[in-house]
Amino acid sequence: MNEQRSIRAKSGANHEGTNAHNRRVIIDALRVNGALSRADLARATGLTKQAVSNLVETLEGEGLVASEELVRKGRGQPSTPYRLVAGGAYSIGLQIDRHVSRVIVVDLVGNILARGTAKVPPRSPEDGAKVVLDLLADVRAEFAADRPEAEARIAGIGVAMPGPFGVEIADDSLWLMQAWQSFPLIDRLAAGTGLAVSLQNDAAACATAERMLGAAQGLDHAVCIYVGYGIGAGLILGGELYGGANGNAGEIGMVLLGGADRLTPLEHRASIASLYSLVGIDPADPEQFVKLEAYLLAGDRRVVEWIERAAHDLRLAVHTAETLFDPQTVILSSGVPGSLMPKLIAAIEPLRPSLVPTSGRAVPRLRLGMTDPWAVAIGAAADPIRRAFDPSFAAILKRQAE
User: What is 215-372's CATH number?
Assistant: First the structure.
């Protein structure tokens, strides 16, 4: 292998009780960088060569890592690269939103293997849970049709839905999906599927997708602002997703803007729901994105004015995120494909001077992330993989305290 290759990896720990963490460090390094030799892994992670050899051998035995052909370079000894096995693990992602639910199955490296959609009653979680369980069963059956052994390798189900969670809100509008917030969704899904289930808000899910597959890959500090039917921010701090005390960290859509006489939540002003309301697009319409793109291409005055107003408000959100969290970058993501988000980013620029240094930056202050209706579902699917395989220094500290 090329000894000068720049490799992005978390640090391992060469002391007792850290084997589980080091295992995750190896998997993460292979996921981020692709195939690496044992020497590459030892150099990048700070682990001893013997520790790396033992870990790689264990991961090979578990079917998570496989060797490639010998690489000969120069006069030195040939080296063997190792890569992740895509079929070493699988995960299911479930997005529950106001007008549609999506289920997706991915493998360890993010390949999409099966997916499906269904309409879920936004105010009837009891009925909606039955619809979701049927959808999960159908997608799992499609996935397992030619992979009978794969069921045993499913890491779990990641669920993403709009927040905030656990907050008493009088508003019963579709905007907040209040009925679903108090419903025992996790228990119902776990009982109905036999799998471990985790829950996060949709912005956190999108940030997970960006970290594992997108614009935040390899970054330790990033804020992902998700512009969907609502608005939220996923926070990647110190290389780990930060959820806060109640899973509501990053709920910037609830931030109030305006003058003293009238304060309006950010997501009522700059979300896709506010744009759709302005131009009369039904968010349940299967042709919604085609219709919106037609308005954009035609230069519709309402859309142009919305972009200007939304850019002003989101510029404030970007500056606030930079001031509070000092990220390497702020990523703007959305479930809306097409030219809307590039136009919105262009309108947000240029950013005003901030506390963030401009010299020596490896990535731009603001960058475009995923613009895909499946972005949240992909992030939801990435969460069980993250929980099972991503390095966590908090886990080391907990183990050492025991």
Answer: 3.30.420.40
